[in-house]
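Priority: low. Protein: Nitroreductase family deazaflavin-dependent oxidoreductase. Input follows.
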Amino acid sequence: MSDAVPGENPYGTPSTTGPQPIPSAQAVTNKIVRTLLRVPAVSGLVGKRLLTLHVVGRKSGKVYDVPVAYTRHNGTLLIGTALRPWVKNLQAGGPVQVSMGGKPRTFDPVVHTEQRDVMRLYEVIARDNATNAKFNGIGFTADGSPNKADLYQTWQQGGVVIALTPR
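Result:
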């Protein structure tokens, strides 16, 4: 990932303990959200900051529908998350299908894992979506900027940013 020393945070003391653990009921929550994102009249309200990634398993070939929060930035969609198994499927290469309240569209994913990239892109995400920032353990300074120590901690604890570029 980088030359950073594990355990040291060059930006000081984080204001949070890091990304929130995934609740045990997340599978049920995801199922409900996936259903709501497929309902045309409701998807616009529920899916204002959510999309569904249709990720193909690199070994199984099975399609996993993963609802995630996103931020629009410079013609791409940014997704901040931990390095979960479904993310590893995106790292394997190839396009991914994305649903955003309509017909699935094809995007090219790039999974950013380097400290500099993750911190820079998570800052964009945090400025756009405070709820997503909180979930990912990113607090804000008195002037409203994302806390650099928290951004570093999120990367240090396995945070990655996926950039999706439409085809």
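The radius of gyration is 16 Å. The mean pLDDT is 87.
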